[in-house]
Amino acid sequence: MDLGIKGRRALVCASSKGLGLGCAAALAAEGVHVTMTARGGDVLAAAAAEVRKANPGVEVIEVVGDITTPEGREAALKAAGQIDILVNNAGGPPPGDFRNWTRDDWIKAIDANMLTPIELIKATVDSMMERKFGRIVNITSAAVKAPIDVLGLSNGARSGLTGFVAGLSRKTVRNNVTINGLLPGPFNTDRIRGVAAGQAKNSGKSVEEILKQRASENPAGRFGEADEFGQACAWLCSAKSGFITGQNILLDGGAFPGTM
To answer: Where does the secretion signal sit in this chain (predicted)?
Structure first.
């Protein structure tokens, strides 16, 4: 299927690895010019080179910086130019017990996983509406649908973003600008390995044992892969998806047991 976005320009945040890289690669494969951001310059350079090599006709721009800071956002927005597609993404806060979290921990989580996406939306959505095309995808978490007890910081911050988008997305769609959430469940990324490492300390099991058990418990019998997440993102960013807005789409291998 031709997704109808060849030649568009995208900003994909935190895209040097994992789900962000999966999204950047999938969009580039559709002919979208991509600006990729990350804090680690070496890893970002390698990832951008990989995307560039696979898609020689596409412009790939690298911006090293922390997208959760004003300076990082300013640099990314300046480099990306006219943005048609925005993929919001940032590393999730650490797991733990809420009794141990300070106000600063909460503010950091909200800054990264709620306020940063809102700031980037604010910087891009009006020009998208003027041009009558825009696709905004927020990578959040399956925890928005079914909270995970040890990820309270993420549960709270990402749910706040989801509530905000629920209202805004109904105002932008008349101008062919959609805003949706992609909610990853267990994917084969550094994030899931980091959570497993924390669980291993408290359980006496190895990280490998925890990961194997968790994968086997998923209805799909495995973890998701970044490239299949990226394909879902690319479709949601396509010209074909203009009637979908304000939705939160689970990619979790069937882990959520509900009907809605």
So the answer is: 1-28
